[in-house]
Amino acid sequence: MSKLMTLPRLRTQGLVLAFWTLLAASYTVSAILSSISEGMAVVWYRPLAWNFTNFYLWMLLTPLVAALGRRTAGYGWGRFFAVHLPASMVMAALQVLVMQAIYWQLCGPPLSEPTLTLGAFMRMQFAYNFHLAWVTYGVLLVVLRAIDSQRRLRDERLRSSQLETQLVQSQLQTLRVQLQPHFLFNTLNAISALALADPVQARLMIARLSDFLRLTLEERHAQQVPLSREMEILQCYLGIQQVRFQDRLTTHLDVATDTVHALVPNMILQPLVENALRHGLLDKTERGTLHIVTRRDGDSLLLRVDDDGIGLPPEGPRDGLGLGNTRTRLDMLFGSDATLELQRRDLGGTRVEMRFPYRERAA
After folding, report:
1. Which pLDDT does position 316 carry in this prediction?
2. CA atoms within 13 A on the CB side of 269
3. Other Cβ atoms within 10 Å of 177 Cβ, number
């Protein structure tokens, strides 16, 4: 783990070294080309020593400049100038003195003045180089603060995105959990009605309810499941309703083979089927038919629930708990890419149709 944690740090340090090396090399090449263009003798090791010493010293001072920048961030201009004005002057002076001392040790006095002493060399070069060093401190500070601000903004956006994702997951979980008491209430009422009239059927419904709850508990943490799993849960639910409706219910499942691996919101079909049974087929005196269709349409997945029940009320469709939660879950998961529509069927009954992006679980 420690080795993995050091990899980003080593990469950053490598990039920093490459940056300062490239900067020093470019200044060195520029100085050599300038000497050539002016017809002067080229002594390549002198600009090389000067520029690499200069920029490598600033590379070593960068963490200190960054630390001073962080200590003054967010405290106003008063503290900023109180810290950085003296710090920049001291650091620029030290950088120039150390650079000139190292250069003198590597290259000695200028070729044009071989008798020049170290003290005279430093006095001659100090003023100009101190000004450049002081400007370099300011530029370095601005760049480091911009990088740090960008990093903090990126981290803040990442935290906000993570919190938003957690909030959406929590809301989706709440919406899905709301469906279970709603469904259990209706099922337990049916079991209660059968307990005296037909105890055998009541026990069968309890057994199938147990299977249904087991399947839903196994997927209680998953917001999306493969359609094959969703159909397994739905068939268990339909088994419960078959006991309830007896020979008054016929179901047809038309599941296209190219849709079984598609990801769908967990228990997205159950409230639609329950709505069709409760509001469309429950009050129908003759046998009712429930038709469930899945199809892939380009980049979209189509899920459709048809019934030949009593149809929509004259005032039009009205979302209850099941349809309302389903619509909200689709909106939270897919936004405007998902639709849910209710309409009257030409041959009687109601059609509920959902469309949302086709996705499969990554292998």
Report:
1. 65
2. 29
3. 12
DSSP state of 220: T
DSSP of 77-122 = HHHHHHHHHHHHHHHHHHHHHHHHHHHHHHH-S-TT-TT--HHHHH
Question: Environment class of residue 235 by beta-carbon count within 10 Å: exposed (0-12), middle (13-18) or buried (19+)?
Answer: middle
- If we measure between CA atoms, which residue out of 225, 235, 227 comes closest to residue 259? 227
CA distances for 325 relative to 273, 278, 350, angstroms: 14, 17, 19
CA distances from 362 to 175, 262, 265, 266, 359 (A): 25, 11, 16, 17, 9
d(CA 242, CA 251): 9
Q: String of b and e for 38-66 (b: at least 16 CB within 10 Å)? A: eeeeeeeebbbbbbbbbbbbbbebbeebb
The Cα–Cα gap between 142 and 150 comes to 12
Tens-digit pLDDT profile for residues 250-303: 899 999 999 999 999 888 888 888 888 877 777 777 888 899 999 999 899 999
- Nearest Cα to 92, choosing from 143, 47, 128? 128
Of 144, 104, 129, the C-alpha closest to 19 is 144
Residues 6+ apart with CB under 8 A from 303: 264, 268, 269, 292, 293, 294, 353, 354, 355
In this prediction, the residues of the chain whose per-residue pLDDT falls under 70 are 1-8, 160-183, 186, 219-221, 315-322, 362-363
User: Six-digit token pair at 100?
Assistant: 């000139």
Report the mean per-residue pLDDT for the chain.
81
Strand-strand pairing, 249-255 and 288-297: parallel
| Tally of residues, the chain | 363
Classified as helix, coil or strand, 39 is coil
Q: What is the pLDDT of residues 116-164, one digit of tens each?
A: 888 888 888 888 888 888 998 988 888 888 888 888 888 777 776 665 6
Report pLDDT for 340: 92
Amino acid at 51: N
**Amino acid residing at 128:** Y
Residue 17: count other Cβ atoms within 10 Å of its Cβ.
12
Cβ atoms of 215 and 236 within 8 Å: the answer is yes
